[in-house]
Amino acid sequence: MAPRHLNAFQGSKVRLAAPCPEDCMRLSRFTDSYDYLRNLDTDIAVPLTPDETGSSAVRRDNGFEFALRTLEDNRFIGFTALYRIEWNNRSARLAIGIGDDKDRGKGYGSDALALIIRYGFHELNLNRIALEVIEYNEAARRAYLKAGFREEGRQRSAVLRDGTHYDLISMSILAEEWSTQTKLPLAFQSTHAQGAKQNEDHSDSRLVAAEGSALSLLNTKGTENSPVQPRIGVGAVILNERNEVLLVWRNRQPEQYTWSIPGGKVDPYESVETTVIREIKEEVDLDITIDKLLCTAETIRPEQQEHWISVLYSTRVIGGIARNLEEGGAIGEIGWFPLDDLPSPLASFAVPGLEAAKKLHLYSED
């Protein structure tokens, strides 16, 4: 059987290309931007000459660097690299930079991340890719979470900028996690990832099972000829030390004008676990960790052409103070409510998760 070939150098918006001398000139001009340098790393911000940028520095550090070029007009927009490779440990570090403000927020970075991660796991046969991001670089952190990276820890107050200390966040993605997320095969199997699945409270096996049960529901509803296709969402039951749950008032569909748990939809190639962590950060500015899978919930409203299958988790806060980041938009207000005295009306998709949380946290205390 002929092998299936994937173009490891070309995505949907950008491609990975060999750096050329002209690219080093452009990279040098990028470093004239103070904001670019301060988001790129923790070094002292200083403009670089063309000789100080480019692949030569990465090669000296046992790495692989690529220029990022747009598919639309073959324009150079930045770089990405895998460096500090430890072949004996099959691990590497990742760096990426998009130079101009006008090229950010267009999906170029996410596409480039998907390409370089796939290159690392498929071409270099790595098992672990790691990176660091400064606490205030929220756009990058969200992109890494969406790509499947997990936060491993924080170097507290490791970065000093303008008189304020910020944490340096360590993140990584393992080959098996990436394979599960993208459904692409690997040439090897990591024994550590299997052990982690057995030891974690919210093991990947249960998460994959939750995804599988949701997808099986999709396949049994006979939606082949329907103009409306079922969508997968996530929700988080977030409790504080007083057994109060965080609810948000929805200004928009679905479930408009109801109190709901925060959450959102799963994007293509994004795991449900990654989605719930990202959505909570984007909606209410909280860093959370997953305690356990509560249940799945299905919402079918033919009259509104809605069909949602939601995976609901019990979670806890590990950082931040709840605040409404979508004020005036999808969320009208947020508030903490006693789990045994909830407001009404409640979003129907949230009810099974809240009832499961009551059984877990209230009735078990009796």
UniProtKB/TrEMBL annotation:
Signal sequence interval, chain numbering: none
Record keywords: Hydrolase
Pfam families according to UniProt: Acetyltransf_3, NUDIX
Organism taxonomic ancestry: Bacteria, Bacillati, Bacillota, Bacilli, Bacillales
Domain Nudix hydrolase, first and last residues per copy: 229-359
Stated name of the protein: Acetyltransferase (GNAT) family protein
PROSITE patterns: GNAT, NUDIX, NUDIX_BOX
Stored InterPro entries: Acyl_CoA_acyltransferase, GNAT_dom, NUDIX_hydrolase-like_dom_sf, NUDIX_hydrolase_CS, NUDIX_hydrolase_dom
The organism's place on the tree of life at top rank: Bacteria
